[in-house]
Specification:
heterodimer; A: about 350 residues; Rossmann fold; 2 domains; eight-stranded mixed sheet; three-stranded antiparallel sheet; about 30% helix; B: about 625 residues; Pyruvate-ferredoxin Oxidoreductase, domain 3; about 20% strand; globular
Chain lengths: ~350, ~625
């Protein structure tokens, strides 16, 4: 299973023979197409790429890619992917999940995969609704959301997935949008290159049960005022012609948005995705309000810390360096401790 | 004490210490119960005594019994921890129904255990703990050592704590550490009384306290003080010997069921030439398997302590998908949580071993006590038609072989296998005749390496005609890229299928492939060939049922015994065997779960005998019950 020969593959190679069965107009199509055209770039053979998913609309994703794939059970994909990744360091393992799958039923596995820094790439398709079960509110739905299960409005406060991932000290945290293929692929590329857990929230439109949830971030009329594109090492500015900037007011824990002209150029925050302290990225994740105004997209955090896989592998390799012939070692193990002989 | 058989004494000799050597009586079997507070080190004391006894060549069986609380309030009844060890000069099957000797470290230990000690038995009691306060704690109105409530027993009143502290007066250890060494004093005394070799305990102390040499010296001194006390005191007029048992030649070690099970899993990985990946979440009484397996990275074992029971099996299943021998270990509450993933593994048709070390339920139940009440869950506890193979271990040593058998079935037939152990065999121990590695079964299986269809394509659900197993096509294999999942799959292609006929076919196929697993025929032990009653068991009841059957036969009462290792599928000859007896009796530590299966499957009106006290059956109760059944046939 050597990786010596570079592989020339095309998007076609990554399309499976299965008919894609999402609703027409679903944001998942765009993400799938972006993924299929992006995967050949990595030069990783198809057989070494594995997609593991849970349950939900997004979790059908693996069926449509001609790689190895497992459509597992609700919420458990990060756990299954952990077992695969730890035991097979030669594979590239992606997890595809949704807001219900990852944050509700599978919340526990998500945070533990991130804190362990398992070498898996987690793509969370966030459409702020339960689609496959036909329209109940999800853990990212806003308070007051009227759905089939909340006819008088939801009373649940939502998760901010980026804040949650940062709270678990994820080493790579990013957000992107289904309809912006260029940005999506740029984030996927960085996630794929990351050693350790990469968490990518993808805003994805459910045109049946929650249509237009992210429209303000897409509509040319509004998007400039709403969207903040993060670039490592660049001042954080947004709006038409850089009309607005992000600053860190003295004495405040959080960040603030100002008109560019209202502050000195030196006060404009320069994005540092490599900051060790997750507090900075966390502050960034709190900029957006419930109306999505000031939503940062891009890589919030990308730091290097040892992956769980590496640490486990190092211990295993150190032990194996002392190993002899397995059956002889097994015989020695069975015969260890207080033994006696009957003649 | 019917089994005490006194032999020739050796009175009149001088011992090495110059005291007149005490008379030595030979016994064929002794059962000792060490009982004390959960902080008194009774498990360790019992374990050491067992190890010394094993070195001598006796056959042994042990039964630890301890509370779930790590340190229940000192001196209370719920805090009592005990360790029973039976040793004999012949082959024994159980740790004994009742002790001959009770070592009671405090009033609570005496009160909690005295009812089990037959009159005439020996009590060695730590008088230092029999204070007014401690007596009151357990509801003794008067001191049983001073009134006549212990008349009829042979009571030895020993100031274990004060004598230990006295013996260690010159040692540079704290009073607390000196008091703690009282279990070594007790062990020394018992080792003298039963003529046990003490070298292994000396080595053990050197290892255990390697970082604190003063504790090595103090504990050794406490042990020696106990030994010498036995030799010099007039309180003990007689010493005993239990000669070695006739055991098959070879190398032995004493082993608990949990350790044996863990080693069986390691051995399975070696014999399959596969890496082993254990996903586990700590749970009593299964955690020791996780602890043991975490030591064996050199042999290719990776352990992942997962965030919960569901993740633990998920990790194991993910590794199995990647080509490892995936294992998860737990107890009943954990199996309940893992049900959905087991169901997924049924659909994926991947090898997976789920170890359930059963404990008393429902809910948290009695977490440190034994029960066999997870059989229904193992057989049926999943949504949909989700058949799996089920294997049960019958003794501590058998846990090793049962683990290998579970792995064999999982790998060969690409199926989840539930391996049932329980608290009794998990924590109990017995001597193990160490196997030759070359005699263990070869568990190698092949991954798929290329297309399997006549058309040159790869079909993930095209089955091996012999085993009905689908190919194990692990990621990384070029040309075999495919998708699997929990949605119903079309026969052969594995594509998603909602076709009614296909679902019916797949459900029946999954059931048929479990039924087709090759399991050996059940063997019947019926030496006379004239028994009319068959006693059928499974799992850890093997010991007590076997001992009861032997006892009956010794008295000329015919009884046949058969024990199930495979509960799914059942042995092919089972129906025929059951039909050849007038009556079938099934003792179980549940309310009749196997009996229910046997009645439904074979339409035989079996007699259930059921107990759920968190304790194993005694052989005496089974003997009495069986005799009654036999009389009425």
């Amino acid at each position: 299973m050597s990786n010596a020969v570079p592989v020339q593959l095309s998007a076609k190679d990554f399309k499976s023979d299965q008919e894609v069965r999402w609703c027409p107009g679903c944001g998942d199509y765009a993400i799938l197409a972006a993924m299929q055209t992006f995967l050949p770039e990595l030069g990783i053979p198809r057989e070494r790429t594995v997609f593991v998913s849970g349950i939900g609309c997004s979790s059908r994703f693996p069926y449509y890619l001609n790689t190895y794939g497992m459509h597992s059970i609700h919420g458990r994909a990060p756990a299954i992917a952990t077992g695969l990744s730890v035991s097979r360091p030669d594979l590239t393992v992606w997890v595809v999940t949704g807001d219900g799958d990852a944050l509700s039923i599978g919340g526990n596995h998500l945070i533990h995969a991130l804190r362990r820094n398992v070498n898996i790439k987690i793509l969370l398709f966030n459409n702020k609704i339960y689609g496959l079960t036909k329209g109940q509110y999800s853990p990212t739905s806003e308070i007051g959301k009227i759905t089939k299960s909340t006819p008088t409005g939801s009373s649940d406060a939502p998760f901010n997935p980026i804040s949650l991932a940062l709270g678990a000290e994820a080493s790579f945290v990013a957000r992107t949008i289904d309809s912006d293929r260029k940005h999506l692929q740029s984030v996927l590329r960085q996630a794929a290159e990351h050693q350790g857990s990469a968490f990518v929230e993808i805003y994805q439109n459910c045109n049946i049960f929650n249509d237009g949830a992210f429209e303000v971030l897409k509509d040319p009329e509004t998007r400039d005022a709403y969207l903040i594109r993060l670039e490592h090492g660049q001042p954080i500015t947004f709006g038409k012609d850089g009309s607005h900037v992000v600053t860190h007011p003295a004495g405040s824990f959080g960040l603030a948005v100002s008109e560019a002209g209202a502050v000195d150029a030196g006060e404009v925050l320069t994005h540092d995705a490599h900051a060790e302290d997750p507090a900075y990225a966390f502050a960034l994740s709190r900029l957006a309000g419930p109306d999505l105004r000031h939503t940062p997209v891009g890589v919030f955090r990308s730091v290097r810390r040892p992956s769980y896989d590496e640490l486990v592998r190092n211990q295993l390799d150190a032990a194996k360096a002392k190993a002899g012939e397995p059956e002889a070692d097994l015989a020695a193990l069975l015969n260890s401790g207080d033994t006696w002989t009957i003649l | 004490m019917a089994e005490h058989r006194e032999g020739a004494g050796q009175a009149g000799q001088l011992s090495e210490h110059g005291h007149p050597a005490k008379e030595i009586h030979q016994l064929d079997r002794v059962v000792i119960r060490f009982a004390g507070d959960s902080g008194d080190g009774m498990q360790l004391t019992g374990d050491r005594f067992t190890s010394e006894t094993a070195q001598l060549g006796n056959d042994i069986s042990t039964l630890p019994n301890f509370p779930a609380e790590i340190r229940a309030p000192a001196g209370t009844l719920p805090g009592v921890s005990s360790f029973q060890v039976a040793f004999a000069d012949y082959d024994i099957l159980t740790p004994g129904d009742a002790p001959n000797v009770l070592v009671a470290m405090n009033p609570a230990a005496l009160k909690a255990n005295i009812a089990d000690l037959p009159k005439g038995g020996t009590i060695i009691v730590n008088t230092d703990e029999f204070t007014k306060r401690n007596l009151a704690k357990v509801g003794y109105d008067s001191n049983p050592l001073e009134d006549d409530s212990l008349a009829g027993w042979d009571v030895h009143k020993v100031g274990l704590t004060s004598m230990t502290v006295g013996a260690l007066a010159e040692h540079p250890v704290s009073k607390k550490d000196a008091e703690r060494a009282k279990n070594m004093f007790a062990l020394g005394l018992l080792s003298w009384l039963y003529s046990r070799p003490h070298e292994s305990t000396m080595h053990f102390l050197e290892r255990k306290f390697a970082a604190r040499p003063e504790l090595v010296a103090a504990n050794k001194a406490a042990f020696n003080a106990g030994w010498n006390f036995g030799e010099t005191t007039e309180g003990f007029a007689v010493r005993y010997e239990v000669p070695p048992a006739q055991m098959a030649p070879g190398n032995y070690r004493n082993i608990t069921g949990n350790t044996a099970l863990a080693l069986g899993l390691v051995a399975a990985g070696v014999k399959a030439k596969l890496p082993v990946l254990l996903g586990a979440y700590p749970i009593t009484p299964a955690s020791d398997i996780l602890h043991e397996l975490s030591k064996h990275k050199k042999l290719g074992v990776t352990t992942v302590q997962a965030e919960d029971e569901i993740a633990a099996i998920g990790v194991a299943l993910g590794a199995a998908y990647g080509g490892a021998l995936g294992i998860t270990t737990t107890s009943g509450p954990g199996v309940a949580l893992k049900g959905e993933t087991i169901s997924l593994a049924v659909a994926l048709e991947l090898p997976l071993v789920i170890v359930d070390v059963q404990r008393a339920g429902p809910s948290t139940g009695l977490p440190t006590k034994t029960e066999q009440a997870d059989l229904n869950m193992a057989l049926f506890g999943r949504h949909g038609e989700a058949p799996v193979a089920v294997v049960a271990a019958q003794s501590p040593v058998d846990c090793f072989h049962a683990a290998i058998e579970a792995c064999r079935i999982a790998l060969k037939y690409r199926t989840p296998v539930i391996l049932l152990s329980d608290g009794y065999v998990a924590n109990g121990s017995e001597p193990w005749l160490l196997p030759e590695i070359s005699e263990l079964p070869d568990l190698r299986v092949e991954y798929a390496s290329g297309p399997n269809g006549e058309d040159g394509k790869f079909y993930p659900y095209l089955r091996d005609p012999e085993t009905m197993a689908r190919p194990w096509a692990v990621p990384g294999t070029p040309g075999l890229e495919h998708r699997i999942g929990g949605l119903e799959k079309a026969d052969k292609t594995g594509d998603i299928s909602y076709d009614p006929a296909n679902h019916d076919f797949m459900v029946r196929t999954r059931a048929a492939r479990i039924e087709a697993i090759d399991v050996p025929d059940i063997e019947v032990e019926d030496p006379s060939g004239e028994a009319k009653v068959l006693v059928l068991g499974w799992g850890s009841t093997y010991g007590p049922i076997g001992a009861a059957s032997r006892a009956l036969r010794q008295r000329g009462v015919n009884v046949a015994q058969a024990h199930l290792r495979h509960l799914s599928p059942l042995p092919k000859n089972l129906g025929e065997v059951l039909a050849s007896y007038d009556k079938v009796v099934i003792p179980e530590m549940n309310l009749g779960q196997l009996a229910h299966v046997i009645r439904a499957r074979f339409l035989i009106d079996v007699v259930g005998y059921n107990q759920v006290r968190g304790l194993p059956f005694t052989s005496t109760q089974l003997e009495t019950m069986l005799e009654e059944v036999i009389k009425n046939v």
